[in-house]
Amino acid sequence: MELLLLLIVLGILGAFVVKYNHLQKLGNQVKRFRGDIAAAMKKRGDLVGRLSDIAKSYGDHEKLTQITASTNMSGVAGAGPDMENASRLFSGLAMSFPDLKANATYQQLMSQLHEIEGNLQSRREQYNEAASVYNSYRSSLPQALFASAVGFPEAPFFTVDESGLEVLPDFKTDDGLILKESLQKAGNRAGALAQGAAQTATQKIGQVRTQLQEAREAQQAAAQGGAVEDGAVEAATVVEVEPVQAPAVVSPAEPAQPSDRTA
Description:
Elements: H1 2-55, H2 61-73, H3 86-96, H4 98-102, H5 104-138, E1 159-160, E2 166-167, H6 177-237
Antiparallel strand pairs: 1-2
C-alpha cells in the first residue's frame, strides 16, 4: 500500500514537472516574439527620427513635428499613430522635393524603413499566434489548476487602439520565482518539522532512559533488601545445640563366688 502511494505521488510530481516545463517553453516563446516587436519598433522610431532630420531642410515641418511628437508620446519608440504613415509621408515629400529623393542617405534609410515595416507585420502575426498557443495550453487541464499560482498569466494579444496607437502587450512570467519560493517555504517547513520530531524523539529517549534507570535502581534496592531479610531469618532460626551425654549404665553386682579353702 505504501509503495502504491509513493508511485502515485511520484507520478503526480512527474506530470507537474512536464506541464510546468512546457508552460515555461511556450511563455518564453511569447516573450521572445514580443521582444522582437519591441526591437523593430524602436529601430523604426530611430529611422523615422533620422529621416525627419534630413527632411526638415526641405519643408513641411508641421507633419514632421507631428511624427516626432507621436514617437515621444507613445512611450515606446516607433509606436506612435503616425508611424504607419511615416513611409508614405516621406515618399510624398520626396516626390515634392527631387533633391531629397536623390539624397543617398535618404534612400538608404527609406529602404530600411520599408523592410522594418514588413518585418513588423510578420512579427505581430507570430506574436499573436504564439500567444494563442500559450493561452490555449494554459487554459487546458490540468495546467489550468496551477498556471496562475506558479506565475503564468494569460498572454495579451497585440492590438491597435481607437486612436491608431499600436499597443505593445505587456507580458511577463514569473520565471520560476514563485515555484522557488514555494519550494523554499516547503523545505523550511519540512526542516522545522524534522527538527521538532528530532527534539521530541530525543525527549522520549531521555524519558525512557530515565525510566529504565529508575527501574534498575528499584530492582537493585529490592534485591539488597531481600538479602538483608534473608540473613535476619537465618540468624533467628539457627540454635546452638549442645551435645547431650548419655547416662552411665551401672551393671548389676555379680554374686561372690565361695572360695575353696583347704582344710
